[in-house]
Specification:
203 residues, alpha+beta, Ribosomal Protein L22, Chain A, 2 domains, 5-stranded antiparallel sheet, 4-stranded antiparallel sheet, 5 helices, 11 strands, 26% helix, 33% strand
Length: 203
């Protein structure tokens, strides 16, 4: 079973799943009611099913009945809050008693193409040139995690969410602020596995 790691973060739990199974293996295992994806691309659908397996490892398959709200955010019918994310090679899930958000990304130079859409001038000023791709992905993952926690549309990543700084060398936590209404600060946590970055926020 490719469950790489389970992390306890406050009252929330995170599962990190390395995707090694075929689409058919994932499709034929676990709780069928969890398979609510409307994704048509085979590889992304495989990643989505791996998210279900990661979540199942946290909550068990007996209560793993999901639905999506009008904004497309997935929910359990009972038993707390969830957030899911997937990319090439990995799927992640977080579950907790309060709203949560998580994102996983494979670090590459592709993020540079959209950096101007989500990086503010202040954030740009502290990005390290020698570590630019990873810093950009840290900003993106943190903002995506906040967006998933918020769970509604019409969020401007550049102006409504602010990452205050990169983590110190001795810390894997950093502050993120949601500014769409009254400013609210959250503590984001990150872990790097190989060339993949995972960032989560639990309120």
């Amino acid at each position: 079973m490719p469950l790489v790691q389970t992390i306890k973060s406050g009252n929330s739990s995170i599962a990190i799943w390395k995707i090694e199974e075929s689409f058919e293996e994932l499709q034929n295992s676990g709780n069928r009611s969890a398979q609510i994806s409307d994704i048509t691309h085979p590889e992304r659908n495989r990643q989505w099913l791996a998210c279900r397996k990661a979540l199942e490892s946290l909550v068990g398959d007996s209560i793993l009945t999901l639905f999506k709200d009008e904004a497309g955010k997935p929910h359990l019918e009972s038993n707390g809050y969830i957030s899911l994310s997937h990319t090439a090679g990995y799927a992640v899930a977080i579950h907790g008693p309060n709203p949560v958000g998580i994102d996983v990304e494979e670090i590459s130079n592709r993020v540079e193409r959209i950096a101007k859409r989500f990086v503010s001038d202040i954030e740009e000023s502290w990005i390290r040139p020698e570590n630019r791709n990873e810093d950009l992905f840290q900003i993106w993952c943190a903002k995506e995690a906040i967006f998933k926690l918020y769970g509604r549309k019409s969020v401007d990543f550049k102006n409504h969410i602010k990452v205050t700084s990169i983590p110190e060398a001795t810390s894997q936590s950093f502050e993120v602020q949601f500014l769409k209404y009254e400013p609210v600060s959250f503590l984001a946590h990150q872990i790097k596995i190989g060339n993949h970055l995972i960032v989560w926020i639990a309120s």
